[in-house]
Amino acid sequence: MSTHNEFGTGVGLLMKITIGPWIWAFHFVISYGAAAIWCEKLTTNGDIGTLQLALIALTIAALAGIAATGIIGWRNWSAGGGKRAGTEPGIDTDESRNRFLGQVSVLLSVVSAIGVVLMILPILMFGTCQ
Amino acid sequence: MTDDPFARFSGTNRPEPNGTYPPTEAMLAEPVDPDAQAASTARMRKAWQEPKGFTHFTAVNNDLVGKWYALTAMFFMLCAGVLALLMRVQLAVPDNTFLDADRYNQFFTMHGSAMMFLFAVPMFEAISIFLLPAFLGARDMPFPRLSAYGFWCFVIGGIFVLGSVLFDVAPRGGWFMYPPLTTQDMGIGADIWLLGLSFIEVASIAAAVELIVGVLKCRPPGMRVNLMPLYAWYVLVVGGMILFAFPPLIAGDFLFEMERSFDWPFFDPTRGGDPMLWQHLFWIFGHPEVYIVFLPSIAIAAMVIPTVAQRPIVGYSWIVLSAVGVGFLSFGLWVHHMFTTGLPNISIGFFSAASEAVVIPTGIQIFVFAATLMVGKVKKSLPMLWIAGALAIFVLGGLTGVMLAIAPFNWAVHDTYFIVAHLHYTLFGGMVFPLMAGVYYFYPFFRKGKMMSETLGRWAFWLIFVGFNAAFLPMHYTGLIGMPRRVYTYGEGVDWGWLNMLSTAASFVIAAGFAVFVWDLLRPKRDFTGDQRNPWNAGTLEWSHNVPEEQWGVRSIPYITTRYPLWDQPKLVERMHSGRYYLSDTKFGHRETLVTSVLDARPLHIQRVTGPAWITLMAAGFTGGAFIFPTFHWYPPAIICAAFAIVCVLYWLWTVTAQIPEEPTSDVGLGLTLPRYASGPDAPGWWAVWITMLGDATAFASLIFGFFFYWTASSAFPPQGASHADGLATGAAAVLLVLSWAATRFARDINRKGYVRSAQALLATGICLTALGGSAVYLAVADLQPTTHVYPAMICVLAVWLCAHLLLGAIGQGYCLARSLAGRMTPLYDADVNNVSLLWHFIGLQALVTCTVIGLLPGWMT
Which of B44, B239, B443, B850 can bridge B208 by disulfide, Cβ–Cβ 3.0-4.6 Å? Predict the structure, then answer.
């Protein structure tokens, strides 16, 4: 029974489901910080053209990252026979646990993606800092 | 072969779990020998006995501490409710003189502060301490003395803060204490608020540490993460949120108190400070706080609803999504409390967007509940009645929340009674009503079979439900037609009079409902017959409890393979009670529980848990002194108390933690042998250090955020011609502290390899290096004048923070050295040095970041 240090690896796997929300969080903090520093320190006339481009690029990167975690989650979710027709998947096996974690990752990716898209809307809709 | 069972093991060859796992059905079906069972039952009863008589208060059993905690929080809630009633009396008619303005200010400040800090958050901790071990089939929390310590800190802090209202010295600046109003307030009210509540926040973080470790490490064998009761998921999320939400407020309190006590100008614009920093730090705490209050209560709903519907929850994963999603998104909302502070519109836009986004996960859980109720066979019951009321009220509060997230509407109704109505709808619907449902639902668990009265319960519900809506629904309109918050009276000429009279009358209906509820809760119910173990026919583990009561938590720790074991695992309860499962005996008479792995709950080792002691009370008392005396600027007694608190905690650690076991491994039943000791990442204590230091790092990050905040918000930070921290001393500090960090780290490794003397020498060197490093930090900032400007004040505050941590680090190094010299820490039993070296990772990083920020950054900024 090799369980040594399973705590560490276990937490890692558990934290993986939060990669999508963490991407949202970084996207959020960087957008907010960049807008604050741009508007207070870097621009003189309130123009946000450069800021818009930079944050759109950031948003695309964030969405790509979220999509990747979603796809990995989807694979775990559908692996292990959970999708096979006519079978009742078990609940107390390693596969069922991975299926569950996969499903939660997918769901969290969807919420994170919506969060990221909502976050870029002010940048697209506002022409100036004010 | 040698007789010494320890001889087979060494620091690099440790005992491992051994034997059969998982158990087979044949093993579980085998009956338990009645004689052995009787003998082990007697031993278990003795080990878990609660202290009697005067020493009763030294008890640490989670059910007792949880009960005290919940009743204390309820008492504070009732006090805060009385303050609300008195305010409503004052507002009933125009130009009333029942309360004067100053007393009214004290009352609304204390009402909000007490409801938030002395009721809502502690109630979550109380209920979790009470119920979580039962949900998880565990004996107790992993650190029972820590729960007791947290509880006594809460009692002392709560009485101190709430008591101030009786002496007319209560805080009066609103529950969010905005400077400069409160920094310039001459009374001691603001100090009471800052120090008293900081003290309670520390207790909250202690509870969060305990609850996270409890959920991750103390589940019964077989209960994988996808089988956990939903409450455990919520506890995990909320524990994580507390670690990121409370520390910014503690950092803010620290800055605030430095300004009030020593005139360091963090929030004084005339010397470069900025009151906005307080608002940011407060609301980075304050908004997640709303969800910290809301999620555990909705978690109760997630436990009640499957029982009421008599079927498993529909969409378990969706609830987990919702809890985790809300946990994250709620950190992106704080500026929606600051929409009118003149921030750039584009910043407001971000927070408006995030405030709308959080509705999605919040809404999902409501739909999951509705779906479960729709597909299940709902039995009408009191808990369901309160849940139904909660959903109705919370949805209304949520809808006004969506309105308030829209900035222009927010500007229009900011600081009016519309906000008062909104926040009471969310808190009553999201916290009070589900909590009441929980009280009715879990009452047979608290009172071991007795139930609350159906009739009185209906009276209480309808009084509170009708009273609440009659009091707060009109307030939306009162606010829209212009009545501002926090005014102690209003004139004849406005149209608010009758609306206020209505709200006042209805508030007494709410109070009547609570009176009925409290009476029903506390009356002895001697005439109650028909005690049942599981009256609601629920499916989760807490309903396997012992009726009549036993103090051991569970007789034996079960093997779990389903989400609703009482429904889906026949014979489970019978086998638990007969001691068929794990750890049904205590060989050496200790209190013990099982530690399992994070994902799949495989049994890892036996954890010895602590029993009753006076030392926890003494530690809490001295900690209280260390926080309370500075309120009156009595610093010498405060320092003495702090020193005694440290001594008490060290005594507590020395006598009961990381004890070398009587034998390296023990049989836990069902053919499984487990180690009796763990160190490093296997040990719950190591994770407690990790989690605590994560919270500490968040507070530190908040101070660093402050440094950058002043830089972005001001054109003169650092100011022209300012004197800086001494470069040479800063550099020396960085080098010395990194060396001390390395010494601790290597001491850990070579101790494990058996070089005990060298490890001791390294630890002693580490203490010297820490002392030298601390002196260098002092020299670096000794010439600065922190009262002149916020820039030197910020540098000094970082230095003070670092030095406090160096003191902690040196104590840790000294503790390991002493443990090693006393033979209580060996190459095999080395949890202490593992924990201290983990502590030093955080201290070392903080030292490096501090030295960079005070030594290098100012040059780049100018």
Answer: B239
Closest partner residue to A119 (CB to CB) among B21, B354, B361 is B354
CB-nearest to A21 from B225, B325, B354 is: B325
SS (H, E, C) B837-860: HHHHHHHHHHHHHHHHHHHCHHHH
Mutate to test the interface with B, among A37, A118, A124 (most CBs of B within 10 A): A118
Indicate the angle between helix axes B144-163 and B101-113, nearest 10 degrees: 170
List the domain range (segments joined by +) for residue B736: 680-861
Question: How far, in Å, CA of B657 to CA of B195, rounded?
Answer: 30
pLDDT at position A84 is 53
Domain-embedded: residue A9:
no
Assess A63–B contact: CB distance below 8 Å, yes or no. no
Contact B344 A104 (CB under 8 A): no
pLDDT reading at A4 higher than 50? no
CB contact under 8 A, B324 and A21: yes
What is the pLDDT at residue A6? 43
Q: Give A 72-91 residues with CB within 8 A of chain B.
A: 91
Domain boundary among B490, B522, B554: B522
State the Cα–Cα distance between residues B339 and B343, nearest whole angstrom: 7
Q: How far is CA B595 from CA A35, B534, B554, B562, B573, in A?
A: 47, 27, 15, 19, 21
Where would I find the beta strands (DSSP E) of B256-306? none
What per-residue confidence (pLDDT) applies to A92?
A: 78
Suggest the residue from B316, B317, B679, B861 to mutate for an interface test with chain A (most A CBs closer than 10 A).
Answer: B317
Flag if A24 and B329 touch (Cβ within 8 Å).
yes
Tally Cβ neighbours within 10 Å of residue B470: 16
**pLDDT recorded at residue A7:** 43
What is the rounded average pLDDT of the residues A59-75? 94
What does R_g of chain B's alpha carbons equal in angstroms?
Answer: 28
Final residue belonging to a domain, choices B522, B553, B573: B522
> How high does pLDDT run on average in chain B?
93
Nearest CA of chain B to the CA of A87: how many Å?
A: 18
Higher pLDDT residue, A91 or B509?
B509
Could you read off the pLDDT of B450-507 as tens digits, one per residue? 999 999 999 999 999 999 999 999 999 999 999 999 999 999 888 899 999 999 999 9
Please compute the mean of the pLDDT values over residues A80-103 and round it to a whole number. Answer: 71
Find out whether B169 and B192 touch, Cβ atoms under 8 Å.
yes
Q: How far is A6 from chain B (nearest CA, A)?
A: 6
Determine, yes or no, domain membership for B568: no
CATH number, domain at B776? 1.20.120.80
* Distance from the B664 Cα atom to the nearest Cα atom in chain A, whole angstroms: 16
- Inter-chain contact A97–B16, Cβ cutoff 8 Å? no
Q: What is the pLDDT of residues B670-723, one digit of tens each?
A: 999 999 999 888 889 999 999 999 999 999 999 999 999 998 888 888 888 888
Domain carrying residue A68 = 19-82+94-125
ipTM of the complex: 0.91
Q: Is residue A67 part of a domain?
A: yes
Alpha carbons B103 and B99: distance in angstroms, whole number = 6
Overall number of domains in chain B: 2
Distance (Å) from the alpha carbon of A48 to chain B's nearest alpha carbon: 10
User: Is the residue at B637 inside a domain?
Assistant: no
Q: Per-residue pLDDT averaged across A45-56, rounded? A: 87
Residue B542 lies in a domain: no
Q: Which of A4, A8, A130 sits opposite B344 (nearest CB)?
A: A130
CB B194 within 8 A of CB B283: no
Q: Please tell me which of the candidates B317, B345, B356 has its beta carbon nearest to residue A107.
A: B317
Q: Is residue B33 part of a domain?
A: no
pLDDT confidence of residue B862: 67
Q: Which of A6, A28, A126 sits opposite B346 (nearest CB)?
A: A126
Q: Which of B21, B224, B318 sits opposite A1 (nearest CB)?
A: B21
Tell me, what CATH number does B511's domain have?
A: 1.20.210.10
- The answer to whether A49 contacts chain B (CB < 8 Å) is no
Asked if the Cβ–Cβ distance from A92 to B227 is below 8 Å, we say: yes
The total number of structural domains in chain A stands at 1
